[in-house]
Amino acid sequence: MERNNDEIVNLLRSKKLKVTPQRIIITRLLLSGGHYTIDQVLNEVKKVDPSISISTVYNTLNTLVKVGILRSFEAEGKTWYEIRREFHINVICENSRHIMDIADIDLSWIEEELRKKGVKVKDINVIVHGDCP
Amino acid sequence: MERNNDEIVNLLRSKKLKVTPQRIIITRLLLSGGHYTIDQVLNEVKKVDPSISISTVYNTLNTLVKVGILRSFEAEGKTWYEIRREFHINVICENSRHIMDIADIDLSWIEEELRKKGVKVKDINVIVHGDCP
DNA sequence: ATATGTGCAAAGGGTTTGCAGATAT
DNA sequence: ATATCTGCAAACCCTTTGCACATAT
Question: B127 in contact with A at a CB cutoff of 8 Å?
């Protein structure tokens, strides 16, 4: 799922963000899918550019959340980042210490039910702790 | 919803925990309902016993989670504690900065669906960010 | 030209740990 | 009697902040 630069550059520009090498590297990683903590992002992006600092990773991820490209949730004492897409379930597998996506269970009706109660939903996090096969 | 001591003492004893004044105070507070951060618990219990320490609050809440009386979830950079009961939705109201319980939306089928996929569910957290009426 | 981003070091906030003295059983 | 709990201080993350320099527009 390797993205070309143009796609990422256009995405960043569409959010009125300056396009820096660091942002391209970080954004490409997150767009490839999965869930990442800051440390995991830092480790990965340092393989491409060892001089990237942890502040920049924090800044960039928080910026990408703010403009709506990413979403974040808290678990295991840390913040996790992933691409923003339809609501889905994140299963934290306590045996393997991984996070598993469950995208084929529809959650949109939760938003609907909450709207009926007068809640204007901004984000839904379903975080399950369990043992995975 | 004031509980008498016997009820709390029996609950703690049933989990093989030593019954201390601090544990009684903290457990009574949590059993009265609602969601609490450590700081909120500390503030409340200090009204009853000003010498209670923050370590004891941490120790007690984590112990109560471990034995299954409480459950915890992470949001807003903190850990929140509440009584363990049926799965429900916690709405974080960004306007009022409160947490609202939605208990009348059934979530048990999420557990069922995940079981079909081979996931042994231990806990389900549904955390919604939104604006409340 | 200038507004914005980067990287460093320091500070901040929440949580855990180690340990001596106290307490419940 | 002894295993456990409490409270204090220190240590330990994770995350944010302040600021000088660098860079994208």
Answer: yes
